[in-house]
Structure formats: C-alpha cells, structure tokens
Amino acid sequence: MSRASVRDRSRAFALVAPLVLFLALFFVWPLWTMVTASVVDDAVTKVLPRTAVAMADWDGSDLPPPAVHGALAEDLRTAQDQQALGEAVRRLNSAVSGFRTLLTRTVTAAREAPDPAALDFAAVDPRWNEPRFWRAIKEAVPPYTDRNLLAALDLRRDAGGSIVAEEPGAAANRIIMLRTFVIAGSVTLACAAIGLPYAMLAAAAGGVMRALLLLAVLVPLWTSLLVRTAAWFILLQQEGLINRTLGSLGIIDAPLPLIFNRLGVIIAMTHVLLPFMVLPIYSVLIAVPRNLMPAAASLGAGPIRAFWRVLLPLAMPGLMSGCLLVFMVAIGYYITPALVGGANDQMISSVIAFYALGTANWGMAGALGLILLAVTLLLYLVYGRLSRSPQLPGA
Amino acid sequence: MRSVRTFALVGCLSAVVGAWGIIGAEARDLTVVSWGGNYQDAQRKIYFEPFAKQSGKPLLDESWDGGIGVIAAKVKAGVPNWDVVQVESEELALGCADGFYEQLDWDKLGGKDKFLPAAVSDCGVGAIVWSTALSYDADKLKEAPASWADFWDVQKFPGKRGLRRGPKYALEFALMADGVAPADVYKELATPTGVDRAFKKLDALKPHIVWWESGAQPLQLLASGEVVMTSAYNGRISGINKAEGKNFKVVWPGSIYAIDSWVILKDSPNKDAAMDFIAFASAPENQVKLPEYIAYGLPNKEAAGAVPANLQADLPTAPDNLAEAVPLDADFWVDNIEELNKRFNAWLAQ
C-alpha cells in the first residue's frame, strides 16, 4: 500500500471516528452492560468468599454443616464495602424474600459477637433454621446465572436444576410482553389508517392549507407527553367532552367506557405517535410527480384502481418506515398506558421500570430488556423479509 | 509525525474532558430534590428561597418520583449530581444499609431527642409525616363511608373506587376491609395465608377498581366523578379543598402513615452546605410554617406543638387521627416488594 493511500484511509477513518465513538459509547456499551448485568452473578461471592468455598461440600438438602456457619459469620464480620454488601443482599432478597432484614440483623450480631466462629445463627433469627435461605446463598455462588433470563420468561429452575414454568398466578411477564406487542401493533395499524390519507391530503394540498395540516401534526410533537395524555383524560372520561356531547345529542343513553381500558390507550397513543407515521409518508409522496394520477386516469383507471396500482406502491417505502418507527416507539411506552389504561393495559416497560428504578434490580431489568430486544429483532427480520419481497412494477 | 499529532489530539481531548469533570464537580450549586407539585412549591417558599438568601449562595431544586434504583445509579456514578434528597422510609432503610447516604451531624440538628423517635436515623431526619387514606367527595356522597369495609361495600356505595396500582397499600387496605384490626395488619401480611387472604379480598372488588399511578390522579378521579371513593395522600386532599374550594373528606381510621426523610447522597460535593440546609429545614421556626400550605405532620416536636389549633386537626399527627391509623412497615415492604409486585402483576393479568 502506498503512503498516499494509507493517509487517505486514515483520514477517512478520522472522519468516521466520531460516529464510531458515538455508536460505541451510546449504543454498544449500554447494550453490553445490559447483557452482562442480566447474566453475571458475582455479587454474593464477592462479599462471602469463605462461605462460597465452605458451601462447595454441602449438597443443599438439609441445613449446612457448622463450618459454613463459621465462614458466613467471618465473612459478614469482615465485610467492609457497605455498597458491595448491599448488592449481595439485594441479590439474595430477590431470590428469597426476607433476606434483607435477615442479613441486616445477622451482620450486626456477627460484628458484636465475641467469638464469631461460634455464632448461633438460629438464635439471631429463627429463619436460619430454614434450609431455603442457605440454599439461596449456595445457588448464588456460580459466577454466571440464567435465573434473570428465565424469570423474564416466567420460568425458573426447580430444586433438581431442570427448567420449569412458574405456577399460574405467580408471574405474568409473558402475558405482559405479548400484550405490549399487541398494543404496539394495534397502534401501528391505527396510525397507518389515519396517517396515509392525512399525508396524501397534505401532499395534495398547497400553500397555506399544507402548512396548516403539517402544523396540526407537528404541534402535538412539541407538547409534553404528560400534557397530551392529560388532555385525553379530560376528553375521554365518563363525564368528559365526548360522552357529554354524544349524550346531549341523544346518540347514547349511558356514557361509553372510553378510558381505563384498551380503547383509551390506543386512542391516546395513536394521537401521540401519529407524526411518526405522517411525516415519512408525506416526504415520499411529495416527491411523486403530480401528473401520475391524471395519467393513470387517462389510461382508464378509476380513482380506486389508480390509488391501488400507482399511488400506494409509490407511498409504500414511506408507509413501511412509518410503521417501523411507530411500532418501535410504541413498544417502549409506559406513561400513557399507566395514566389512561386499565388493569390489563400495562406494558412491559412499566415492569422494567419497576426493577430498574424501584428496586435497583438491574439484572432483572436487563434480562427483560434483552428478551424484549430479541423479540423485536426477530419481528424486524420478518418485517425485512416481507417488505423486500414484492417488487414494484418498473422499480 | 502522525503519532505526535494523534498524541496531541488525545491529550487535548482528555484535558477538555478532565476540565469538564472538575468544573462540573466544583461549580455545581447545592441541589435539593423533593416530590414536586404544590408540596414542593410550599417548600420553595419556606425552605429553599429563605435558605439561599441566608447563605448567600444559589440553591437548585429538582423533583423526583422515588425509587432506590435512581439513588443507586446516582451514587454509583461516582460524584452524584444531587445533594439533598427527600426519601420515603423504604428508600431510607435500603440506602442507609447499602451506604448510599452520608451520616448526619445530629449536633447541627439540635440532638436526636428534639424529633419524633420514628423520624431519627443515622442517615436521615424526618421531614414530614404523611398519610394514605380513604377519601371521598362529601358534596356527592350523602352518607359518609367510615372504613375500608365501606370501601369494599359496592351495594351500599355503588360506583367505582380508586386505588394505587401496586401491592403496597392495596393489600393492607384489603385486610382491614376483611376485618383485620389495624394493629395486626402486618402480622397477618407476614404469613402466606394472610397474603392469600388479602388477594382474595381484592378479587371481590377487582371489577370496581380504577388503578391510579401518580398522586394527582385520585383528585382528578374524585373531582370528575369517575370514582366515588379513592385512596389518596392526605396533604393533596386538603390542598385541593383550599385551592379549588372542594369538599373532599379524609377517613382517618385505617389510614397508613409514613415518614419522609432528608438524606445527603454519599460523596456529595456540597456536603457541608447540604447539612446546613437540612438543619435549616428541620429548625422549629421554619418547619412550623409548612401546615399552612399543606397538611403534613411535623417530626420536630417543638414545631409540631406550635402549629395553630385550626390547622392541627387536618394533620396525620393529630392524636384523634393517629388513634386508629397504621404506621407503614418499611421493613416488610423492603423484604417483600419484589415478590409481591410479581404476584400483583400476575393477579391483575388474570
């Protein structure tokens, strides 16, 4: 390779370097953190190294031998890093509820005991008489785990180590995940049904009319999400504008249930996401020569046939990218469903937010995010296959 | 040659980034974080602005919606961008155990015996005592509901009910509606049969419940007539009565009260100013002004005693209101929130 071409290459690389850096920093790195958070499980062994070693010989069936007791007391007594201890406690409490208060009590006892090796655990807290608490520590010894990923799919490992489904009524991540895709899909369809004619209208109109139509789509985009959602609340509620108008016109006798159900969620989300559908279709349609439709008519095609054979295929790229945008944004929603939805309209993001913000269980949040990402990628692949196959005539 | 240039570039970049970090860490003003809404408006008037004037340095205030994950993320980032935060009792217990907060200087606060015992800990000092209680619109309901059993009685009080989405509070209220005495609620909830009993009681009311998420929603639900009764935060109820002339009432028996505390995030760059601010907001002469704006109880005993009698009756700390109220068991929820939230979600989806 000549010096000049090396220089060119390095210059080209320097030009894309900001992009690569940006992608690595804001895309690859967080994603990698999420993946590792969901499978790495070293919080407990970091704080309880002696216990981990002592537990290797214990089969986990009954209570562990005294050597394990002594090791645990020594580990707890010498644990210096309070935040690391907190991580370990959080991990154990997530496996068996009650570890939080149990370990807090035991740490105090271990630090105050004159002879930690002889600490009587059952006297500190009777829960130490239950093997399940000891077993939870043993299960947290291996450095990697699939429990978060399994739990995200409502699965778990039984005592024998084989994967079993959670009892019905104990977990609902699968249902909520499915519901997320159903809601996102319905919103996408609703946006397409409204967005396509709207974009056609905007592209066909001229001057002030077009500016007004586009402004009407864009203004909601500039308004806070909460304000828009609250506005829908006022419109849709039982004594709201819509129900009152319909009632005073004599169209309905009793108020329609428009809010705190799926319908309310889809109406509000469709409104919020409509710009993401209208703008891509509009940008495609605006480039379509205006004489195509008259040309189709002159060749004998009626309006519907001309739309179906000429305009729709040309608008397809815009429609497709609009659908993709709306769907992708919609699966991440949770404020709108939380405010206008009912008991069965919560989306998976609200569960992720509960773990990430509410309990700082980032392993579980990462696992749910990862499953969501995997399913979305799968859908994207299917979509790519579907949207590629029909070749446009002449395209 | 090129390597020299690259080296210089990297050097410049890191210098810029480093300078950014230092400026960011040194120049940030004291940042106080609370719960927003009309509560924070009141705090701004009686704590934030007077303190800024007194200390001669600006004070930034932000709001948040709680969650130990938020605190954990801030502290683990190294230098947190918040200094003083008002936290709920679970976040106080969790964060204190996990080393997310600085130890308080109780000498600056005037000693631990100046405060309610429940408002005192190594990492935090109580800011308010607040309640979650049954509320209704007295202008719309002719007969007043008196208990959670009435809340569950859809024959006597037809219409929808509002409850906060999530197991916390809903399970306690369900048990009280099922006849468990307020004092025994957490004892019952600590057993698996007690949890089953609570969910079974919730089953009966499920079709009539509208679940709310943010504290402003129950007021809206009551005002619009969407629900006839709802659980709500007591300060918001008296606030809307004052601001909009509503006649919303709070049913004190069976209400659950808790203490919110001021904490300082670990390794805060404004540690001393933060401690001074907490001392200012805990001083009786400043704290006593709060009930005028919002009906929350005061953890400083001297301040609590100095509240005018006409405001006293609306506070969760008034003896009559405390008589049959339940203190929130933060330990129970710290232990069980994950498991019960999972079950609650599954129950909702059924």
Automatic annotation (TrEMBL), chain A:
- For this protein, the parts annotated as crossing the membrane are 12-32, 176-199, 211-235, 265-289, 310-335, 355-383
Q: Which domain of life is it from?
A: Bacteria
Alphabetized, the UniProt keywords read:
Cell membrane, Membrane, Transmembrane, Transmembrane helix, Transport
Chief location category: membrane
Location of the protein in the cell = Cell membrane
Tell me the InterPro entries matching this sequence.
Answer: MetI-like, MetI-like_sf
- Cite a single Pfam family from the UniProt record: BPD_transp_1
Report if keyword Zinc is assigned: no
Name the membrane topology term: Multi-pass membrane protein
Give me the Gene Ontology terms describing cellular component. Answer: plasma membrane
Q: Which residue range or ranges hold the ABC transmembrane type-1 domain?
A: 177-383
Q: Which GO terms describe its biological process?
A: transmembrane transport
Which SUPFAM superfamilies does the record match to this protein?
Answer: MetI-like
Question: Which family does the record claim for this protein?
Answer: Belongs to the binding-protein-dependent transport system permease family. CysTW subfamily.
**Know the name of this protein?**
Putative spermidine/putrescine transport system permease protein
| Annotated source species | Chelatococcus caeni
Automatic annotation (TrEMBL), chain B:
Source species of the chain: Chelatococcus caeni
Tell me if Cell cycle is a UniProt keyword of this record: no
Keywords attached to this Swiss-Prot or TrEMBL record, sorted alphabetically, are: Periplasm, Signal
| Record protein name field | Putative spermidine/putrescine transport system substrate-binding protein
Gene3D superfamilies named among the record's database cross-references = Periplasmic binding protein-like II (3.40.190.10)
Residues of the signal peptide: none
Coiled coil, from the record: none
Which Pfam families does the annotation name? SBP_bac_8
Kindly give the PANTHER family that the UniProt entry links to this protein. Answer: ABC TRANSPORTER SUBSTRATE-BINDING PROTEIN, SPERMIDINE/PUTRESCINE-BINDING PERIPLASMIC PROTEIN
